Amino acid sequence: MDKELKKEFQNLNKKIDSKISELDKKIDAKIDRLAMVTAQSFEQVDKRFEQVDKRFEQIDKRFDGIEFQLVELKSEVRQIRMEIQQIWNKLEEIEEKLEKISKTAKEDVDALASDVLNLKQRVKFLETQIKEMQTA
Predict the structure, then answer these.
(1) In angstroms, rounded to a whole number, what is the distance separating the alpha carbons of residues 117 and 126?
(2) What distance in Å separates the CA atoms of residue 122 and residue 46, rounded to the nearest whole number?
(3) 3-state secondary structure of 1
(4) Distance between CA atoms of 65 and 71, rounded to whole angstroms?
(5) Which helix (H) or strand (E) holds 48?
(6) Cβ contacts of 22 within 8 Å, gap of 6 or more
(7) Rg of the chain (C-alpha set)
(8) How many CA atoms are closer than 13 Å to the CA of 26, on its beta-carbon side?
């Protein structure tokens, strides 16, 4: 019986070893499959990152263009502000000149009015004298 038991144990051991070997092969196959799927996933992720990088590069180029346009726009706005300031300065000069002209014109009109009044009085005086001379 010892021999039979020993034989059974040996057969059992062989079966267990065979099963373990099969399981090892299955586990190795599954690990290989998992490694392949993981590698493919990483490749897909890498491709996706490359696409994202390309899009960011495009966006960077667009932002560079926009930034350049903003710099130009700021320069143009600065130039326009300077021109507007020059126009305001000219308008102030014109306003001052108009005030001086208006003041001078008023003074001239006042002087002329005074001269006209003086001339009217002299004409009246002369008319009166002529009438007196004619009646005398």
Answers:
(1) 14
(2) 111
(3) coil
(4) 10
(5) helix 2-135
(6) none
(7) 57
(8) 6
Q: Where are the domains of the chain?
A: 1-107
Q: How far apart are the C-alpha atoms of 35 and 26, rounded to whole Å?
A: 14
Token duo for residue 54 = 């390309």
Q: Find the largest Cα–Cα distance for the chain.
A: 192
Count Cβ atoms below 10 Å from residue 53 Cβ, excluding itself.
10
DSSP 91: H
What's the token pair of residue 29?
């196959």
pLDDT tens digits for 15-44?
999 999 999 999 999 999 999 999 999 999
* DSSP structural state of residue 33: H
Q: How far apart are CA 86 and CA 118, in angstroms?
A: 47
Residue among 50, 97, 13 at smallest CA distance from 89: 97
- Please report where in the chains the tokens 């290989």 appear, as a residue: 32
pLDDT single digits (tens) 38-67: 999 999 999 999 999 999 999 988 888 899
Residue 1: the pLDDT is 62
